[in-house]
Amino acid sequence: MNLLLDSSSAVPYFTDVDATLRAMGVSASEFDWYLSDVETNFDPAGFSWSDRWMTGPELAEVLSHANFQFIWAVFSAFPRGARVEIDEAPFADGNRAFWVDDGTLRPQLAGASFELVCWDSSATILIGISESQADQFGLAYPEAKPLQSVARPGSPPHGETGSA
């Protein structure tokens, strides 16, 4: 299931990954993660935001910082210990595939359990989440809607284009 949250009175700002995972009933520590296309408002000392693998506990530690917002990013969740070869890193900025979802959109990396996308500080996109995760997320954020419901060929929300 693919969801979009682009308006909510329940969040002080979008793309708070820790709050998003909690709303889904997921702990960052449950998975290994491939992070890509990352831009944030925070730069932890000694940490690089280049595309990379992170263990769940490593990501949980990074996300524990208060007021930590992702502007752009793709978080690809994998079962712990599963690592795949990355030929082409997932991306958010400039990725129009989200806005033409016909219900078949899947995480950009084969084998990923799901994908969490931070879109230009103005939306959170969940790709390939389970029905139970979608139900929990919907309870926390009733404004969330199926991504397919906003699909328009080549049209990001609010006229945003990203930097293809």
Chain-wise SSE layout:
Layout: E1 3-5, H1 17-24, E2 31-40, E3 52-54, H2 56-63, E4 70-79, E5 114-119, E6 123-127, H3 131-140, E7 145-146
Antiparallel strand pairs: 1-6, 1-7, 2-3, 2-4, 4-5, 5-6
Summarize the structure.
The chain has helices at 17-24, 56-63, 131-140, and strands spanning 3-5, 31-40, 52-54, 70-79, 114-119, 123-127, 145-146. It is an alpha+beta fold and 164 residues long. A 7-stranded antiparallel β-sheet has the order 3-2-4-5-6-1-7.
Task: Tell me what the structure shows.
- The chain has 164 residues and is of the alpha+beta class.
- Helix content is 16%, strand content 24%.
- It contains three helices and seven strands, in the order E-H-E-E-H-E-E-E-H-E.
- The chain has helices spanning 17-24, 56-63, 131-140; strands at 3-5, 31-40, 52-54, 70-79, 114-119, 123-127, 145-146.
- The protein is globular, with a radius of gyration of 15 Å.
- The two termini are 26 Å apart.
- Residues 158-164 have low confidence and may be disordered.
Radius of gyration: 15 Å
Low-confidence regions: 158-164
Strand content: 15-25%
Q: Secondary-structure element sequence?
A: EHEEHEEEHE
Largest β sheet strand count, sense and barrel closure: 7 strands, antiparallel
Output the number of helix runs.
3
Distance between the termini: 26 Å
Strand order of the largest sheet: 3-2-4-5-6-1-7
Mean pLDDT: 87
Give the helix level as a range of percent: 10-25%
How many extended strands?
7
Q: Which class best fits the helix and strand makeup?
A: alpha+beta
Shape call: globular
